[in-house]
Amino acid sequence: MIYKDDQELIKSYLTDTSNIQDGHTPGVYFPETVGDVSELLEKCASSGKRLVIAGNGTGTTGGRIPFGDYVMTMEKLNRIKEPVQCGEKSAIMTVEAGALLEDIQRTAKQSGWLYPPDPTEKLCFIGSTIANNSSGARSYKYGSTRNHIERITVVLSSGEILDIPRGRHLAGKDGLFSLNLPLAGNMVFAKPDYSLPLTSKHNAGYFSQPGMDLIDLFIGSEGTLGVIVDADLKLVPFPEKIISCLVYFHSMKDLFSFVEQAKIKSGGVDPRALEFFDRNSLEFLRAAYPEIPAVTSGAVFFEQEVTSINEESALESWFSLMESSNAMLDDSWVALDVNEQRALRAFRHQLPVQVNEWLNAQSESKISTDMAVPDGSFVELFKFYRDTCEKNGFRYIIFGHIGNAHVHLNILPSNHDEFLRAKALYKDFIAKVLELGGTLSAEHGIGKLKAEYLASMFGDKGISEMARIKKTFDPDLILNIGNLIPEPYFTISDQP
To answer: pTM of whole model > 0.85?
Structure first.
């Protein structure tokens, strides 16, 4: 076990991409084995010392930032085993929590396999993506991280090491779990008593559904229930070929029609990703890509996995859909080979670069959303975002995962007054999303930044349910306090 308390050496563990600036810690622990993690947690539980579990600093919600607690970073636990085929079209790869996503995806590809989850930031730790149930563009076809985890090892706050394979521990018809643990003995507890929104992506609070698997309680729990130290990832065959395209539209009506038809998946159209850029996003990108049409309302990026047998027919189906949707065919960008697809992926990732360059010249941070709604409500939410920003004179962009009715609104304040007005409007956005049956967070999680808003979605009773589950596994309240659950709810949950 390595420990560092030189403040100059550990200052990088006080930040992530949330732009929270006032984190502080007495020191950082660097466990090198699962045994190290277990020993440290056991000592912390007996002494009351609190720990923040640190990923690689790529999160957006302040989850790894300490406010006086100690930090435990998982970076030394970074081993990746070779994939082991377990079926004609599946394989398992065992990885430790500190392994980088890009290294995992590279190792899988070298053996002819694909690990489907694809968060934009490839330098994230795999354990963090599991704890956060991360997703990305390919989630339209493959779903979030949860769908690709077959087993995890979790160290509880007591130091107990718990192996959780999928399918072993299921909630009964009465909603109860029963675990017989070597140290804790027999644990009986109920699953969270609330319903989740009917969105295709959701990442806010503990998972709950009838007959649920215990592994799914830990996936997406943001490190509040235990420390994920390793996992078995489920792989699929690497696709033979991919076609991708960036399609421009003169009108949003035509763009929405195109997306709606693409999601029907008929006639050979079967996207694995459907991504959106509004006209303001394209304006940001025009500095790096002057070939973007001067007059366009927005664009859709899509990808589809194909084979040499069906590639031509799939392309014909897409072109037919583009034509019937009045797409700007002459201006659209079709990428069929590896180099063109790499260039198109660079286009997609250039947007945050351009936005960050603009923000660096400003004195204020952006206000951003990560909300999603059921498919049928997406257009209403989009118009609410757009019209609210236009009415207030904000500079803004809207982009993201339109296939999942999940786009990000970024308001870009030019002064402090605009920042305050935009921050005040965030509650209006939450209210609208909840009115439409949506979720507060679809992929980035809650962390510390959004914990205060979670009760608006689940109510006090729902947050108290989360506090109950938290105290079942972490009775001494030493893990990631302040993440997900506002601290006052631990007192509320004790009241009769």
So the answer is: yes
How many C-alpha atoms does 308 have within 13 Å on its Cβ side? 0
What are the structural domain ranges in the chain?
A: 84-238, 241-435
The DSSP code sequence of 261-298 is HHHH--TT---SEEEEEEHHHHHHHHTT-TTS-SS-SE
Residue 362 in this model has a pLDDT that exceeds 90: no
Decide if 316 contacts 268 (C-beta within 8 A).
yes
Distance (Å) of CA 327 to CA 159, 172, 208, 256, 298: 58, 51, 41, 11, 10
Distance (Å, rounded) from C-alpha 243 to C-alpha 396? 30
End-to-end CA distance of the chain: 42
* Predicted local distance difference test score (pLDDT) of residue 492: 53
Q: Report pLDDT for 280.
A: 96
Judging by beta carbons within 10 Å of its beta carbon (0-12, 13-18, 19+), is residue 49 exposed, middle or buried? middle
DSSP-assigned beta bridge partners for residue 125 = 100
Question: Cα–Cα distance between 149 and 266 in angstroms, integer?
Answer: 30
Site of tokens 């040499």? 308
E strands present in 121-171: 149-155, 161-165
| Count of CB atoms situated within 10 Å of the CB of 27 | 15
Of the CATH numbers 3.30.70.360, 3.40.50.11030, 3.30.465.10, 2.40.420.20, which one belongs to the domain with range 84-238? 3.30.465.10
Query: 3-class SS at 1?
Result: coil
Confidence of residue 494 (pLDDT cuts 50, 70, 90): very low
Residues 6+ apart with CB under 8 A from 382: 398, 407
Q: Tally Cβ neighbours within 10 Å of residue 470.
A: 24
Please name the residue ranges forming H helices in 325-453: 338-360, 378-392, 416-435
- The set of residues, in sequence order, having a beta carbon less than 8 Å from that of 467 and lying 6+ positions away, is 485, 489, 490, 492, 493
Element (H, E) at 384: helix 378-392
The three-class DSSP label of residue 368 is: strand
In the prediction, which pLDDT does 495 show? 42
- Tens digits of per-residue pLDDT, 81-127? 999 999 889 999 999 999 999 999 999 999 999 999 988 778 899 99
The burial of 276, by beta-carbon neighbours within 10 Å (0-12 exposed, 13-18 middle, 19 or more buried), is given as buried
Rounded Cα gap, residues 82 and 110, in angstroms: 10
Quote the crossing angle between the two packed helices 416-435 and 378-392, to the nearest 10°: 160
DSSP state of 24: B
pLDDT of residue 496: 35
Burial of 182 (0-12, 13-18, 19+ CB in 10 A): exposed
The tokens of 156 are what? 């509880």
Q: How far apart are CA 408 and CA 470, in angstroms?
A: 30
- Domain 241-435 belongs in CATH node 3.20.20.370: no
Element (H, E) at 256: helix 252-264
